[in-house]
């Protein structure tokens, strides 16, 4: 797969119209251009020193992540770029468009949990960062928590604020700590709210609104949209080897 082929695939998949919404906002793009003929592709949520080294160790040609390296964390992005350049690795990240995509983070995790997507919410200038999922046979809160922990392969934080069985859930993967998003989930009739980060206000508003709250990690609630994306790439370019780059459960 040539990088030009990959660029065209991204445009076709996310559409020019959606990509235009975030143009110039550092929500997607290449951070380093290395090898232009890709035979091995790696993916993970975060571009970090550790994930760049892991990609280099596995002889990856193209690394795709959800997040770019954090520029405000002094020195990290510079060191990451040195690793990518030294190893001749091309890197591409896709942030808000992957949150919004119909195959993206929220939809993918809901499907893995056995829910069907029925609505979207958490509108960010035309991009929807959240999805509503429903299930035919309501389940107990603790059973849902167990399913999530098995899927993420990590413990989660949980606050049981009502006694209802879970039939309808609001999901904003990653940094979905906004009380506004929880309010929207309440108004949409959700029995639980699931996200990847929380702050004091998240917990307080969930308690006030009697919304069951489940909080996993930012990293591992957002890996499944990438997984869906690279499967689509592999379907179009079956000769490309796909590997998941390991990340630690540090959150």
UniProtKB/TrEMBL annotation:
Protein name per its UniProtKB record? GTP cyclohydrolase 1 type 2 homolog
Top-rank taxon, per record = Bacteria
One GO CC term, this protein: cytoplasm
- Member of which family? Belongs to the GTP cyclohydrolase I type 2/NIF3 family.
Q: Specify whether Hydrolase is a keyword of the entry.
A: no
Keywords, sorted A to Z: Metal-binding
So where does a divalent metal cation get bound?
Answer: 66-67, 99, 218, 222
Which GO terms label this protein's molecular function in UniProt? metal ion binding
**Species for this entry:** Oceanirhabdus seepicola
Give the matching PANTHER family: GTP CYCLOHYDROLASE 1 TYPE 2 HOMOLOG (PTHR13799:SF14), NGG1 INTERACTING FACTOR 3 (PTHR13799)
Q: Is Mitochondrion set as a keyword in this record? A: no
């Amino acid at each position: 797969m040539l990088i030009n082929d990959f660029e065209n695939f991204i445009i076709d998949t996310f559409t020019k119209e959606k990509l235009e919404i975030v143009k110039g906002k550092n929500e997607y793009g290449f951070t380093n251009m290395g090898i232009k003929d890709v035979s091995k592709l790696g993916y993970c949520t975060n571009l970090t020193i550790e994930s760049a080294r892991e990609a280099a160790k596995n002889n990856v040609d193209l690394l795709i992540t959800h997040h770019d390296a954090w520029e405000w964390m002094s020195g990290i992005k510079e060191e990451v770029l040195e690793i990518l350049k030294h190893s001749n690795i091309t890197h591409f990240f896709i942030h808000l468009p992957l949150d919004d995509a119909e195959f993206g983070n929220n939809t993918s995790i809901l499907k893995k949990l056995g829910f069907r997507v029925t609505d979207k919410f958490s509108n960010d200038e035309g991009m929807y960062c959240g999805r509503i999922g429903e299930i035919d046979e309501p389940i107990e809160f603790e059973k849902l928590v167990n399913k999530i922990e098995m899927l993420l392969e990590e413990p989660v934080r949980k606050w049981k604020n009502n006694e209802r069985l879970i039939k309808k859930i609001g999901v904003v993967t990653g940094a979905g700590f906004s009380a506004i998003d929880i309010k929207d989930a309440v108004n949409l009739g959700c029995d639980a709210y699931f996200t990847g980060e929380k702050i004091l206000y998240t917990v307080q508003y969930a308690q006030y609104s009697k919304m069951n709250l489940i909080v996993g990690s930012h990293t591992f609630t957002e890996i499944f949209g990438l997984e869906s994306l690279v499967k689509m790439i592999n379907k179009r370019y079956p000769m490309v080897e796909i590997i998941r780059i390991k990340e630690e459960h540090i959150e």
